[in-house]
Structures are given as structure tokens and as C-alpha cells.
Design brief:
Blueprint lengths: L9 H8 L14 E11 L5 E13 L2 E6 L3 H11 L15 E5 L5 E7 L4 E5 L13 H6 L10 E2 L7 E8 L2 E8 L4 E9 L4 E10 L14 E4 L6
Parallel strand pairs: 6-12
Antiparallel strand pairs: 1-2, 1-11, 2-3, 3-4, 4-5, 5-6, 7-8, 8-9, 9-10, 10-11
Length: 230
């Protein structure tokens, strides 16, 4: 799950209700997902702050592709700026696709895909947070680390291939609807009893495009993330 600017990311949310756990070793699934994020908070001045966005998550064995859905109007504006004399800064690749590979030793190879400049930008662990990646393969691949389910309470029996889990810490509640066959969180909801904040993540299955997005990148130049900071 990509956690960039989404109020409380999944790892921070689980930290409220669960102890820290090691990454899961659950078997990978090939389900590809459309993931919608919606969160809101009410500030001390009574104003409501809401954030929503959607991503496509393609899961193929040890490869993971996470792509934010960007409106066409924003893409056209970005194209115009990219061909101006403004140059290319870190802001040019905010929201760009992430292409992640898990190696046999469970280390990760993370690349930011800059289509405008046809660059593959290699991102090291120190900069994961800058590109919206929390560093956990299991959480990104399954939307919630399957190992965390062991610390949640089942809410009723399995139904239609789904298992619902719940947890509570003080006034904070967490609810997870887990797709057993697909091995992903179909829905994650959290809210507080005083009604000042809530967050929902919903995932639905989608098809992989006829041409996987990573097969078109052979001609892209490999660069380091530090290039964006020059």
C-alpha cells in the first residue's frame, strides 16, 4: 500500500492497536487491484479536512507495480510544464508509478518510473518515504501484512470467501475484510468514537493490461534518486 500523504498510513494505524510484527511469509497472489483511499479529520477549528485518491496495484509474483490515478487535465498540465524551461525537479515525479521487485533474499529493488523523462529512478531505503513507500513488501503487496491478522479478532464466520477481523484500542476501532483466496485486504476501515477522524481503504479486482506496464521500459535510462535533488 502506498501511504503518501494519507493521514495515518497502515503501519501507523496498526501501531495503535497491534505490537510490531515481522514481515509475513504468506504465498503471493496474482490478483490485480484497484484501490480507493478516503480519509478525513476534523481540526481544532471545526473544519473538516478530507483526502481521497485511487491507485492501480498490479501483482505478478515477485513484481509489484503501484500507479496513482492522475486526471487527464493534470497530465496535460504536467506535459506543458515538462516542455517549458522550468527544468525537472523532485516535484515532477510526485505520484509517479513505483516498480518494486522482491529478491530471493527478501531485499527490495525499488524504482520510480518517470515517463516524461523516460527514466527509471533507483530509490534506496533512506528515500522510501519520499516516494510514498513504507518499506514493507507484505503490506504493499497485500494492502495489510497477513501476519497482522493473527493479532486481530475474527468477527463472525467466513462468508463468501471473506473473513472479517476487528480490533479496538481505547476509542480507536479497526475493521478488516480479508479476501482469503486473493490474499489481500478487500476493505480496511478505522475510526474513532468521538467522530473526529476516519479512514477507509477499498480494493476491487481488475485485469492486468494486455501489455504489462513494465515491459515498455527497456529504453528508459537508469538514474539514482539523488539526481532529483540536484
Amino acid at each position: 500500500m502506498r501511504k503518501i500523504l494519507f493521514l495515518l498510513g497502515p503501519a501507523l494505524l496498526l501501531a495503535l492497536v497491534l505490537p510490531w510484527l515481522k514481515p509475513a511469509t504468506a504465498a503471493a497472489s496474482a490478483s490485480n487491484l484497484h484501490v480507493e483511499y478516503l480519509g478525513w479529520t476534523i481540526g481544532s477549528d471545526g473544519s473538516r479536512h478530507q483526502l481521497s485518491y485511487a491507485e492501480r496495484v498490479y501483482r505478478d509474483g515477485d513484481l509489484l507495480w503501484i500507479e496513482r490515478e492522475i486526471p487527464d487535465a493534470i497530465k496535460k498540465r504536467h506535459e506543458a510544464q515538462a516542455h517549458s524551461a522550468l527544468g525537472h525537479t523532485h516535484d515532477d515525479v510526485v505520484g509517479a508509478p513505483l516498480w518494486i521487485r522482491q529478491n530471493t533474499d527478501h531485499s527490495l529493488y525499488v524504482r520510480l518510473v518517470d515517463h516524461h523523462e523516460q527514466r527509471l529512478i533507483e530509490v534506496g531505503p533512506a528515500n522510501y518515504g519520499n516516494v510514498g513507500f513504507g518499506g514493507s513488501w507484505a503490506e504493499a503487496y497485500h494492502l495489510l501484512d497477513p501476519a497482522d491478522l493473527q493479532k486481530l479478532q475474527k468477527a463472525g464466520p467466513e462468508a463468501d470467501g471473506l473473513q472479517t477481523y476487528e480490533a479496538q484500542s481505547g476509542q480507536r476501532h479497526l475493521r478488516v475484510v480479508w479476501d482469503i483466496a486473493g490474499q489481500y485486504a478487500r476493505e480496511i476501515s478505522s475510526w474513532d468514537e468521538d467522530g473526529l477522524s476516519a479512514r477507509t481503504i477499498k480494493a476491487t479486482r481488475i485485469d492486468l493490461p494486455k501489455q504489462a506496464p513494465w515491459v515498455t521500459l527497456a529504453a528508459y535510462r537508469l538514474r539514482d534518486y539523488s539526481d532529483l535533488l540536484d
